[in-house]
């Protein structure tokens, strides 16, 4: 089976050579072709893509599956480029989830234990004890409780944090205070000391965190976004930080992206930013990609097929 690998971020997230060698070993008969080729369009049955040039999918007459190598295929869905008869699936890999869990635990504990404040004291050679609240008096809330949010909650639970989550529809989860819908969002935001967002980009989530919702946050809360930059109205986030409503922000995604050098977020004293690197080691995903390739080659049902109406 010929598989076309069309990656906008090859060399940053992906090593095409390593992917090709590993997949060839794991899936006998698979030939990975890195876009733009050379390729025989009639032989390509699957495309692995985080991006594609206009018209690519329509030019592949025997295409059966497009796999987005990550958690958020919203750009591919929004483009309308993937034909209706072609299965669009996303990758939910344990390795990526583990990396993102490390990231969340790192920055929650970093803020909770006042690491930045102690670092500032070290620079001026003067110590002062900073009291931090007990974990059982501190709530970490998750916007979304899918595979990622559940992994974050499981990792933070042993530290004794209170846990909460907000979802679009009603759910139950052991040991987690659950909120849902528009009415539940205000109560959720008002009770969390840390808000961790991993929401996809959809018509329901774009601009969700605006001035009104930031005003619902508990004073001094820390907002963390690992999902999509367009969840946030950036100017409203900056206003919330400057006013003191927000105690800080940890941003692995940005709006716009790439972030202009003149953006005040680069230099804001309350902001920690990373370059969409919370789950960047994509070599961890190769075994799961290989499993999906075998399913496609054998014409079997795929996990995590995208609901195009919902956008994820």
Q: Into which percent range does the helicity of residues fall?
A: 25-40%
What radius of gyration results from the CA coordinates?
A: 21 Å
- List the domain count as a whole number: 2
Largest sheet data? 7 strands, parallel
Helix/strand class: alpha/beta
Percent range for β-strand residues: 15-25%
Task: Write the element-wise H/E pattern from the N-terminal end onward.
Answer: EHEEEHEHHEHEEHEHEHEEH
- Dominant shape: elongated
How many runs of DSSP E, i.e. beta strands? 12
Look at the structure and give the CATH class of the largest domain.
Answer: Alpha Beta
Kindly report the average pLDDT value: 92
Separation, N- and C-terminal Cα atoms: 27 Å
- In CATH, the architecture of the largest domain is 3-Layer(aba) Sandwich
Read across the widest sheet, the strand sequence of neighbours is 8-7-6-9-10-11-12
Low-confidence stretches: none
CATH topology of the largest domain: Rossmann fold
Q: What would CATH call the homologous superfamily of the largest domain?
A: NAD(P)-binding Rossmann-like Domain
Tell me the number of helical segments per DSSP (H or I, 4 or more residues long): 9
Summarize the structure.
This protein is of the alpha/beta class and 312 residues long. It has helices at 16-26, 74-79, 94-112, 115-123, 147-156, 181-191, 211-216, 234-243, 286-297; strands at 2-6, 31-34, 44-49, 65-68, 87-90, 139-143, 162-167, 177-180, 194-197, 221-225, 246-251, 271-273.
């Amino acid at each position: 089976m010929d598989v076309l690998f069309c990656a906008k971020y090859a060399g940053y997230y992906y090593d095409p050579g390593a992917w090709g060698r590993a997949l060839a070993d794991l899936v006998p008969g698979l030939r990975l072709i890195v876009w733009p080729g050379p390729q025989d369009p009639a032989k390509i049955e699957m495309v692995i893509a985080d991006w594609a040039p206009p018209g690519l999918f329509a030019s592949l007459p025997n295409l059966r599956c497009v796999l987005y190598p990550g958690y958020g295929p919203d750009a591919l869905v929004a483009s309308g480029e993937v034909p209706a008869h072609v299965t669009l699936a996303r990758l939910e890999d344990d390795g990526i989830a583990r990396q993102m869990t490390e990231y969340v635990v790192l920055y929650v504990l970093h803020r909770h234990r006042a690491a930045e404040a102690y670092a500032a004291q070290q620079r001026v050679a003067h110590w002062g004890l900073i009291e931090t609240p007990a974990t059982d008096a501190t709530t970490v809330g998750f916007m979304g409780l899918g595979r990622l949010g559940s992994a974050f909650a499981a990792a933070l639970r042993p530290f004794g944090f209170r846990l909460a989550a907000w979802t679009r529809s009603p759910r139950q989860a052991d040991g987690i205070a659950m909120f849902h819908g528009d009415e539940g969002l205000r109560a959720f935001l008002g009770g969390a000391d840390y808000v961790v967002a991993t929401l996809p980009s959809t018509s329901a989530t774009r601009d969700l965190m605006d001035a009104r919702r930031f005003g619902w946050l508990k004073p001094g809360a820390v907002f963390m976004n690992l999902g999509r930059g367009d969840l946030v109205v950036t100017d409203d986030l900056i206003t919330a930080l400057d006013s003191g409503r927000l105690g800080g922000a940890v941003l692995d995604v940005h709006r716009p992206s790439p972030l202009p050098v003149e953006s005040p977020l680069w230099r804001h004293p309350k902001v920690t930013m990373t370059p969409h690197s919370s789950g960047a080691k994509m070599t961890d995903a190769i075994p799961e990609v290989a499993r999906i390739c075998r399913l496609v080659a054998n014409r079997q049902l795929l996990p995590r097929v995208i609901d195009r109406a919902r956008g994820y």
